[in-house]
Recover the amino acids of this structure.
């Protein structure tokens, strides 16, 4: 077993993605199973940068927002561990996931001070996701995000300030560039072994586990056997 550096996993999601919402239980299980032998770094990939374009126009011939709401509820029915509010995408329609991505990026920039640590930022991202899917709150609104942070005991106003000074946007831009450099197809995507191992979509836990276990057993970076 590898006793050196932890296996780094870059985990790309869009907060408004139902598949990422459902997959979180698998990520949590990886953390429970492997502990400090892995390092999961949450990143963002834009799928719902414009919900009007993605859903309003993209689903125009399939019922629009109401049709997409039916689709999301149908997907959720296959995962008994998650709940989806029937108002999601019907009456609750965030204009973009970018606002929540920026807010979490801003919180990441404040990690290490007395009020925010890394687990709190991960929890913030999850709470924002749940606020949309479970409570049908418009997480495209900054005021909603600040309220979520405040209710967690985090400095919502300070996080918002880091959104406004451009530093969070700079960090999010790096993630967006990864969509091209790593050829990310969407959300959720896990990258391991310097991008050589890529798991995209509704991937089962055993597949994730097998990839992590292989890297722990064979830590040498091997692009090929040639």
């Amino acid at each position: 077993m590898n006793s050196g550096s932890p296996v780094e996993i870059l985990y790309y999601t869009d907060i408004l993605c139902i598949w990422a919402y459902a997959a979180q239980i698998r990520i949590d299980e990886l953390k429970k199973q492997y502990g400090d032998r892995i390092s999961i770094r949450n990143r963002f990939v834009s799928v719902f940068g414009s919900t009007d374009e993605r859903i309003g126009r993209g689903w125009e011939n399939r019922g629009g927002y109401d049709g997409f709401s039916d689709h999301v509820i149908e997907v959720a029915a296959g995962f008994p561990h998650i709940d989806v509010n029937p108002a999601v995408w019907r009456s609750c329609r965030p204009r973009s996931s970018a606002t929540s991505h920026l807010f979490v990026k801003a919180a990441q920039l404040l990690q290490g001070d007395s009020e925010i640590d890394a687990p709190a930022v991960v929890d913030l991202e999850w709470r924002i996701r749940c606020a949309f899917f479970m409570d049908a709150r418009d997480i495209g609104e900054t005021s909603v995000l600040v309220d979520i942070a405040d209710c967690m005991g985090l400095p919502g106003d300070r996080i918002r300030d880091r959104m406004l000074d451009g530093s969070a946007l700079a960090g999010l831009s790096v993630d967006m560039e990864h969509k091209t450099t790593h050829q990310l197809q969407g959300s959720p995507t896990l990258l391991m072994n310097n991008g050589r191992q890529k798991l995209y979509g509704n991937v089962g836990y055993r597949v994730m586990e097998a990839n992590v276990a292989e890297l722990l057993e064979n830590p040498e970076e091997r692009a090929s056997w040639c």
DSSP finds nine helices and four strands in the chain. The CA atoms of residues 44 and 175 lie 6 Å apart. The chain has a mean pLDDT of 93.
